[in-house]
Amino acid sequence: MLILALVAAFLGPSALATTLSTPSTLNITVIGASNNHSVLECWALEPGFSESATPGISGNSVIGLGQGSGAVDFALIAEHADGGLHNAPAMQWVTFLSGSAHITLPDSEDEAWVSGGKYGTILALDTQDVSAEGHYTEYPSDEVTVAITVPIAAVPGHRVLYQGPCRDTEQDY
Ligand SMILES: *[C@@H]1O[C@H](CO)[C@@H](O)[C@H](O)[C@H]1NC(C)=O
Ligand SMILES: *[C@@H]1O[C@H](CO)[C@@H](O)[C@H](O)[C@H]1NC(C)=O
Fold this sequence. Notes:
Layout (H helix, E strand, L loop, with lengths): L1 H10 L15 E8 L2 E9 L4 E2 L9 E2 L10 E5 L3 E6 L5 E5 L3 E6 L2 E8 L5 E4 L10 E5 L5 E7 L6 E6 L10
Parallel strand pairs: 1-10
Antiparallel strand pairs: 1-2, 2-13, 3-4, 5-12, 6-11, 7-10, 7-12, 8-9, 8-11
């Protein structure tokens, strides 16, 4: 009994739960800007994942997404909606929970298809001051596209992996 209590005290409750093996970092599709035009890039965030010590998720993987800067919105976007040509209203994370978004560019053939779900988070940075025209977004899904937008104060630390959206090989978790 004493031994069990000591083992439990040593391991802590988190050791009894299943945890995920920690991937190196999160790779994210970014709508960025270069020479006053919107571009698509795949970024690896830096620093990468670490093991969380936060109660409730302790022992699992966590990565910081930067400092928030304003109101967080939860948007319901109609099936087959056309968002048209627009700039990011602010530098922001956009997490699609359902539906899908198809992002295209006025000055490039690059395009991104983002499905709602665990790979549904992108970073939109092409504000008016850095991109004259912005990007197009359509929501081709037959279901409502739910999106959470989180404005950020600064571009998070990163390394650019390549031009164009992240591919499946960069999003494996
Ligand atoms: C971007 O292009 C717009 C429209 O041509 C122009 O008004 C603006 O000054 C340009 N911005 C930069 C930073 O070059
Ligand atoms: C992110 O990309 C790097 C470089 O391709 C890769 O090694 C890593 O496994 C990727 N991370 C995930 C979570 O897929």
